Known about the structure:
Structural class: alpha+beta
Order of helices and strands: EEEHHEEEEEEHEEHHHEEHHHHHHHHHH
Distance between the termini: 45 Å
Largest sheet: 7 strands, antiparallel
Bound molecules: adenosine monophosphate, magnesium ion
Amino acid sequence: MAIAPPRSKTLEDLRFANSFAGLGDAFSERRTPAGIPCARLVAFSPEAAALIDLRAGEQMRPEFAALVSGNALLHGMEPVAALYGGHQFGVWAGQLGDGRAILLGEVDQTEPYELQIKGGGMTAFSRFADGRAVVRSTVREYLASEALHHLGIPTTRALAMAAGEEPVLRERVERAATLIRMAPSFVRFGSFEIFHYRNRHAELKTLADYVIDRFYPECGTSDDRYERFFATVVERTAALMAQWQAVGFAHGVMNTDNFSILGLTLDYGPYGFVEEYDPGFICNHTDESGRYAFDRQPTIGLWNCYALAEALSSLIPRAQLDAALAGYQDVYRTTFLSLMRAKLGILDVRDDDADLALELFGLLHARRVDWTNFWRALSRADADALAMLGEDATSRTWFERYAERRAGDPRGEEHRHAAMRAVNPKYVLRNWVAQEAIEACEAGNDSVVAAVYDVLRAPYDEHPEREAWAQPAPARYRDLSVSCSS
Ligand code: AMP
Ligand code: MG
């Protein structure tokens, strides 16, 4: 077995390329972050640090806190805020852009990572807002992005978080915080849309070539590269939606400016994990019409691909766009069903598996059973899961069908259950648990953020000492509501 080399780089050893900044003024504006004063480092992800080979212990240095809080740059960084537009709640919103995010630089290595600060002050794209982020929203993004990663779901990552004294006005006065997040690229569907709607076809092509060359090299260099690229984005988006549905993740604000061109989960705001199963779950209380309700996510993912198709229509013939869009449904369905089979502990493929799953969803909904805990119980013993559903004739009928379905499984029960526990997490980030971490952090105690992080980095383990975090909200946290305000 190969032994991983120790992470080797100091902050000063990091080399930065700035390929996105290099695209020029039509794509971004140069902007130095405005740091938050009196900042402390709140949280740090060693797994994210490993992606840029950052030496263990570097996070203890004052230079690291200064970087994370936007008070200092590293040599070679060329910070910029990116231009983009987007469809918000189904309506073309025109120009948006990095209003409070600044791309600091791209770590130059075999698999480059961009470092972006969120909450680093105003940019040319801030419109009427202050360019800041608060402790609440920053803890939420830090924990959720690392949680999704450890659940095997493509996402931007969070390297570290800082918090300061600066007051920031939201519904109440809160404190400023910053996050350093990481991704190979933060280009969004809306990054293409803005050039399309402005009839800037040359810039649109430059951006497409940039993204394809760097992130979709398999699409080649011939004329059909744009359609191959688009087809791959559609596939990745469909697969991402299937992964969200399987784990019960509701994004909350699926505007096209929050959709990554790499198929990553991006921009964590008023997201929520489904607890008592309700397909119509709306996690964002500002979403009055339920456009982004949990069960609409796959449809909206496709809607967003249609918006991207429109934006790319100067590069790709309509017939090819339509052909790629037609592939969405199949990728979604295949991915979702294979995830469901794994969750059910079923090895082979049968045509009526969708019915088995749908019947179960109906029961979970009717009885308001906790999504995560049901699957975890099913990974221990049928009896435990049956008890959660209610031991009546309807539930028993489903369990009989389920037992028949897996009858030919050559694995012993123990083996099957172990495989199921490796795909059915015990822990997801429940809103109330995030809230507990936030309240502690706001009071100056960062240890709860760290403890929640430790559980979420190993969500399939038991962590018996943290059993409470696998349970529904205690009374004082019921009726939490989250909105777009962050
Ligand atoms: P969101 O819905 O949070 O993804 O944000 C939509 C747009 O509003 C993006 O252009 C953001 O950069 C911008 N925005 C959100 N919050 C702020 C803020 N506090 N200051 C400046 N711009 C913001
Ligand atoms: Mg956004």
